[in-house]
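Sanity check

After download, print the first record. It should look like this:
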Amino acid sequence: MDFSTTMEIFVSNYTLIDNEIYELWVEGVSAIEAVCQLKGKALLQQGSNVEMLQSEIEDHYRTYSLLERLLHNPAKIKDHQLEFQIEPQIMSMLIQRYYKFDDAVYRDILGKKLSTRNRKDLDDLSERTGINILSCRRQFDNAKRVFKVVEEMPGLVVKNIIDNFALDKELAKSYATVVFLGSLRFDCTKRKLQYLSFQDLSHCAHAIMANWTCKEQGPEQDDTEFDREFLLDLKDLRVMLDKDREHKHFSLVCTKVKPQMLEKVFQDVENNFKTYTRAILGISCGLHRSREMRTLFIDMVEKCLEPWYAAHWSRADLSIFLEAYTYSALEMDALREAELRQSWERCMKVLSTSLICLHKDKKEKK
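Expected structure tokens:
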């Protein structure tokens, strides 16, 4: 017998990931339901049958269940786990898909405490939206997990989320919306706000974070904390309500908007300028009070947008008006001081961006 034959044996525990099966697992589809969805494709493959497919899916599901505890702390996966041999780009894909969310779910939780009690209400949300209850719970738990880790963490919230959860920037920005609006208790639940999507409120939240928070470079930068000095300075904008200054502002705005607006909309500007400017300045001057900040979105809808809807303003009309309103004020002596000019610009940048974003025509609101 010849014992000179050389044998080479290679043992690997490389973890196989099936994108389609992983997606179904993330969406909360049971293994049996996954078999039903995939069996047609499997039977087209030579030698495949339903039993083999079910065994394969159940094996994948067991693997993903074991992986899930690592996905709860994704920043440590690369350096601190040896149990699963997965290529970095595949692991990144697993993380992004696990933390993906449905806008309808995160729109529903905005403004609510991420508590056990509200988690129990997910059954109703699942019924309303048709989203699998297990997926709703995964999304809720992910939001709660991210919130808990970064809420009290100093620094920029998007960066903190990326550093701690290895999410891509766009996904991290969405989670930052949940953290920012939740930690500062913005009211997003009122019935009049239900026409707004998660992305609408996210757009407004990031405008606020970029302009009204403490983002100066250095150890004190934090875009989940308001710049209180700036908000207190906004009280000085009451100078714009002086009768003569208000009239001057009115004249400058009308001169700018008249060539660009339909006659009926321009007439509404002429007839109701005082009402509109007092609504805008009333919101601005009260932002230093936490209660006023929390009701910012509902105040913008009730005090500004509803009157403009009633007067049939389009989004284009609103954009024209707000641009003229902002820059006409900068031409006035009332805002001669540099700090007051800067406060006006910071304030109106957010209000203009938000009002235009929140403005919907009737079809959009439905």
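If your output differs, re-run the checksum step. Summary of this record's structure: The mean pLDDT is 90.
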